[in-house]
Known about the structure:
This protein is of the alpha+beta class.
Amino acid sequence: MDIAHQSKEPRPFLKNAVFSDGTEGFLNPQEPKKNGTVRISIRTGKDNADAVVLITDRKQYLMRYKTSDRFFDYYEREIMLGTEKLSYYFLIECDEQLFYYNCIGIQAKNEWTDIESSAEECCRKYAFSIIPGFHTPDWTKGAVMYQIYTDRFCNGDSSNDVMNNEYYYINGGTIHPDNWYHYPVGNGVREFYGGDLAGILQKLDYIEALGVEAIYLNPIFVSPSNHKYDIQDYDYIDPHFGVIISDGGECLKSGDTNNQNATKYRQRVSSFENLEASNRFFAMFVEEVHKRGMKVILDGVFNHCGSFNKWMDKEGIYKEAKGYAEGAFYSKDSPYNSFFHFKEDKWPENESFDGWWGHTTLPKLNYEDSPELEDYIMRIAAKWVSAPYNIDGWRLDVAADLGHSPEYNHKFWKRFRTVVKNANPEAIILAEHYGDPFDWLQGDEWDTVMNYDAFMEPVTWFLTGMEKHSEDFNGGLYSNQDAFKNSMLINMARYQTQSLQVAMNELSNHDHSRFLTRTNQTMGRSITRGSEAANWGVKPEVMREAVVMQMTWPGAPTVYYGDEAGLCGWTDPDNRRTYPWGREDTQMIRFHREMILLHKNYDALKKGSILFLFSSPGVISYGRFDLLDKFIVVINNNNYETESDIPVWLIGIQDDMPIVQLLYTNQTGFGFESRIFRAERGNLKIRLTAFTAVVLKNMPSLM
């Protein structure tokens, strides 16, 4: 065997020195092509390994010693790939001791077992892997995103506002609050504040100055609700968000629940003059965003539509409108009949259709029985990523629920990927998903997911002890460094590296309570405690800790509009408050700008490796590093001062290498007071006051 280092003297094995991952420093190229070659690398402690073996699911390879530095030996092996996925892990020998290393760490061979699995089975479950030909868009890797719930961001054109009683939806007529700062009501789906695309356009200077690289919009297609997850027409932007040229007709009279009498609404949403004008406005909007170097991602709701949808037309919105076929609710002969599953033959006005989770306002789409429906949605998927709209990707709502079986679900998303990537190869396909996303991240379906399991939830539990809806407090997870570390390692291991680097890392969004409200560690909803209580007892210093983590963790940090301005709120609908123009927390905005700038300035924070360095109760430290830059992040989430001894040698920082503090945040605010540290015997000793986070960096690239 070609063994680089041998010793007759027994020596301890430095487990924490061993490292490899799927970043460019250890896998080159990071996204190899089919039938190409790839170089796999690993490091061990210097003079600490007798042999390193690369074990793949096809064969084993002896790793070749390449080079050494002060702390580490580096081994590599170039192998040929085929067209199929390759999984691998490492076996390391040190003085006849055997150790396995994979995505979640290293253990002696005889230790790495659980009740049901052998050591080899455990290694394979969390093995590294390569999927030849799997590429996620480069622009998305580490991109800073900004999520906008359009109705609540900015009212730029009052002429397209939904009017009071314009139509009837879910137990009442539509409502237009007079006060922009009014808290959302309990049944908020028919409450419209007037935010629109014109408003976002007017605030692009603000968004650009924040440092945003991509805008993700909650649904903007024609729909009767403010959230618009009950789509009425996939072909057109809602004129209430776009442009209303042809106006007229009447709103409903008090007590009238028949939307066939809502002639104003019917004209606004069925007039092709309005619809085409709104699409043109959107194309112009995307072009303006692109001119500023930013991207646009739309929300695709393809699991279900809405009862107002022109295919169903339960409300009769399109019954007398020119250019529309009859809806499936009224006629068995409708061209859209197969788009839905009707349990009984009860036309006209057939109420027996399947609703998603039983909601009659959300008809479940019936793909398995309708090739025509699948073709229609594929056309929609390609339409919006193509000229003249040229959006840069899709966020997919409840993507794992689509269809009536897992087999069809995977078949659909495989075709969806092909269609979208053929139309726009650099469009991102990003799915909403709770739980293990592994099955969908195999290179032929989704690019990535909204990162609940490997970001939002562990961060929330560690920093606040709160469940993401503010409906539970768990003292066992609060400031529990071991639970945080284990959760992150296990869940990140289920991603391909290129999927992890583009995963949407959010602290808040439209489905969960605002993170700032979670910092008050109070359980509640607006209906039980009142909206104002969501503002009480919050801790901005903990929010800033979270932002430090968001901007230094692998993935695409995604700011939910208003989080950067100190917006609070319980879960839906209170989390959908209007942006507080004129009432912003300007300190929080400045902090977001600085953290975003720091994130964007360094590839190590966007595409570099991550390694846990130190942890103790309430304290975590991790490194982000590549060949050039080495960052140290330290979080003290305790309400008292702590001292940590951080082994910075694990990311290659030597004692003679200056370490500069770039930024700190604590209970009194944040700042950029530069302090120079040096490691002693490979460790950095640092004291942090209560609820403090610091970001430090090696000096060389700053010189």
